Amino acid sequence: xxxxxxxxxxxxxxxxFAAAGFLGRMPxxxxxxxxxxMISQLTxxxxxxGALSATIALAAAAIGPQISRLVDRHGQRRVLRPAALVALxxxxxxxxxAHLGWPDWVLxxxxxxxxxxxSLGAMVRARWAALYRGTPLLHTAYSFESVVDEVxxxxxxxxxxxxSTVWFPEAGxxxxxxxxxxxxxxxxxxxxxxxxxxxxxxxxxGSALRSVGLQMLVATFVATGAIFGAVxxxxxxxxxxxxxxxAASVVLALYATGSCTAGVVAGMLRxxxxxxxxxxxxxxxxxxSMIPLLLVGNLPxxxxxxxxxxxxxxxxxxxxxxxxxxxxxxxxxTEGMTWVSTGLAVGVALGSSVAGWxxxxxxxxxxxxxxxVSGAVAVAVGFLGYRRLSRPAPGRGxxxxxxxxxxxxxxx
Length: 412
Known about the structure:
Keywords: Membrane, Transmembrane, Transmembrane helix
Structural class: mainly alpha
Helix content: over 70%
Main location: membrane
CATH superfamily of the largest domain: MFS general substrate transporter like domains
Pfam families: MFS_1
Number of strands: 0
Radius of gyration: 21 Å
Membrane topology: Multi-pass membrane protein
CATH architecture of the largest domain: Up-down Bundle
Protein name: MFS transporter
Distance between the termini: 42 Å
């Protein structure tokens, strides 16, 4: 393992919570596609399958920041376990309702309940921040977590789809639930690395979104999420039009592999430029990388273009988390990180929906105009927010106790 990563895991307990976070994050890439596969096999209704998957994603986007806000206030163990139990109960209800052919409204109610699944990525990043705040190793930690995200999205859908098609329809979502239970309960059993909570009487009750810097990050990542959602849908349609629908998974895996590769390299470097500048360059790079997709004519060219496009994803996400840490008070850090994920989730839903409409109207190749336009919007919002992001919130130099009040006053 490269030296920075070896040093990263020298801290006691770091290997344990990183492993638990990886296990508990697998459902993020398994549950939605697993539900689509399960419902389509059991009922043959792809419209219902897609609507249920969207319900899960939108419910998680709405509920996730509220769960993380409670975590900041009461601690990970007290909040994550009840939230995970609700999500697991809803998952079990969905599997049972689908298997027994219960009414659609039951399926949608259970799908909405799955939205209470905790954001394990934010929880693990908060632990890294508590360990390495103010040191170069925090950059390495965020790089490692971005790589873990990409690994989950490379292998999670393959595992989920494979189990549901080869074994039995409910197998993919069932395994996702098992991963969630194991990850959450393993992570919350590790008390020594759990960040200290910040009860209400120690800080104001406002949301992390009061931070203007976080607002700019979330707005930009709604547009960025639209890139991701559109690329997924259009790539499947593009491969289908060329008679190789199965190749879409390989092509999309290369997109994630490019991001994963860049994330590993980023973790071994010590960036000299200011985070806001690196972030803006990353957003611009993601937007520019969408332009070649407008010219694709075959799958090999598409695979190369997406691999190159992926190289800008992880470094931008790494810098985004560093900016969240700069612009959000420590008492709201987990919530702030979750809001970024929420912005991405909303963008993915919008991008996939718009891309589907464009594909139906003009074909798959025209569909790549959606991520290109989304990239342009992300750049525009990024430039609007750059000046604010280049000025970190005051009160970052001392202890939490010394600066928590000042951090609260400067959130707006």
